[in-house]
């Protein structure tokens, strides 16, 4: 079918935007692959919502016998981008109207020079959030992560997500923009909607089954873990000594001469967890000071074994896209800590 799109209201405001190059502008007629609910209707474009080098997004209204409905038109710089995004929306049909905007079709036309042009039509829902994701309230963060989890379960993963990709009407959330999206097999079993804010590190194991979601949750400060600072590094307090005097007296100076970076961070954690267990068993700080060489040797041995196991597990979780050499310095992303 063909769809008429009228840009006269935009023409009065802006003479230089992507639709200007479409043949017939300001009243264009394009082919559409998705008749309902656009059959026997037209779209009156009202203004430009945003413009980037990849696309221009317009606000408009569907004009027809069924009444007026707010719409969004997205004209892509490349037709293959429009076709790919349209396909992604079709693959997520079950999420439309609840997790992502409703998709109303892929339209195609030609420019004044005979080149192909394409775009997609979506429902207009809410507005992009006006804060960085890190500054949003925790309930909103949980809803964003839950939406992303559902998108992952549908077999797709957006390459990036920011405030411009999160739409809110004050009650609900929608994720939009699937231009740069890749196939994804998600193994996460974590319940973000009901997750506690203050957590223990081991409680995040189900979340780690999807590194992409875990990384996003960490970046936006979704979790809080009580911390202790040792030699400038923050660690979860559980299973670690927290008395600064004890930490200083048992400081393993040898490690600083041999290790650095993430190796030092994880080795210090292993060492001080051993120290904590020894103190809990009744040994004194003075006894442990006399036994520090053996304690450091135990820590190095345990750390080496766990490091090899982590590489193997990470390789299994994150699939063959990463080389083993890229994982040598792997450690979980830093979480938001609580003093």
Salient structural properties:
single chain, 339 residues, alpha+beta, Phosphorylase Kinase, domain 1, Transferase(Phosphotransferase), domain 1, 3 domains, seven-stranded mixed beta barrel, three-stranded antiparallel sheet, 10 helices, Kinase-like_dom_sf, Protein kinase domain-containing protein
Summarize it:
It comes from Paramarasmius palmivorus. By secondary structure, this protein is of the alpha+beta class.
Task: Record the SSE blueprint.
Blueprint (H helix, E strand, L loop, with lengths): L1 E5 L1 H4 L15 E6 L8 E11 L3 E10 L4 E8 L2 H13 L11 E8 L5 E8 L3 E2 L9 H16 L2 E3 L7 E3 L4 E3 L5 E3 L21 H4 L2 H9 L4 E7 L2 E4 L7 H6 L3 H6 L2 H20 L4 H6 L1 H27 L17 E3 L1
Helix pairs in contact: 8-10
């Amino acid at each position: 079918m063909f769809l008429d799109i009228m840009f006269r209201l935009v023409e009065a405001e802006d003479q230089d935007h992507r639709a200007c190059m479409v043949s017939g502008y300001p009243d264009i007629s394009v082919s559409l692959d998705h008749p309902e609910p656009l059959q026997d209707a037209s779209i009156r474009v009202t203004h430009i919502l945003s413009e980037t080098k990849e696309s221009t997004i317009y606000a408009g209204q569907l004009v027809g016998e069924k009444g007026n409905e707010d719409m969004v038109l997205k004209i892509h710089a490349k037709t293959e981008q429009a076709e790919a995004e349209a396909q992604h929306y079709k693959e997520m049909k079950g999420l439309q109207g609840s997790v992502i905007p409703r998709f109303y079709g892929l339209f195609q036309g030609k420019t004044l020079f005979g080149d192909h042009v394409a775009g997609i039509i979506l429902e207009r829902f809410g507005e992009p959030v006006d804060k960085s994701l890190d500054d949003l309230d925790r309930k909103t963060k949980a809803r964003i992560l839950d939406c992303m989890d559902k998108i992952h379960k549908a077999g797709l993963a957006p390459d990036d997500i920011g405030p411009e990709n999160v739409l809110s009407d004050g009650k609900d959330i929608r994720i939009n923009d699937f231009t740069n999206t890749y196939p994804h097999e998600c193994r996460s079993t974590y319940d973000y909607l009901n997750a506690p804010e203050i957590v223990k590190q081991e409680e995040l194991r189900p979340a780690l089954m999807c590194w992409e979601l875990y990384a996003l949750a960490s970046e936006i400060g979704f979790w809080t873990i009580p911390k202790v600072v040792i030699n400038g590094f923050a660690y979860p307090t559980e299973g670690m000594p927290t008395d600064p005097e004890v930490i200083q007296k048992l400081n393993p100076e040898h490690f600083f001469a041999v290790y650095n970076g993430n190796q030092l961070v994880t080795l210090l954690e292993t060492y001080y967890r051993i120290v904590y267990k020894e103190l809990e068993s009744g040994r004194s700080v003075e006894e442990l000071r006399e036994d520090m060489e053996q304690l450091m040797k135990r820590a190095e041995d345990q750390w080496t074994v766990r490091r090899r196991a982590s590489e193997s597990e990470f390789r299994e979780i994150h699939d063959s896209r990463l080389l083993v050499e890229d994982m040598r310095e792997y450690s979980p992303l830093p979480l938001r800590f609580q003093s």
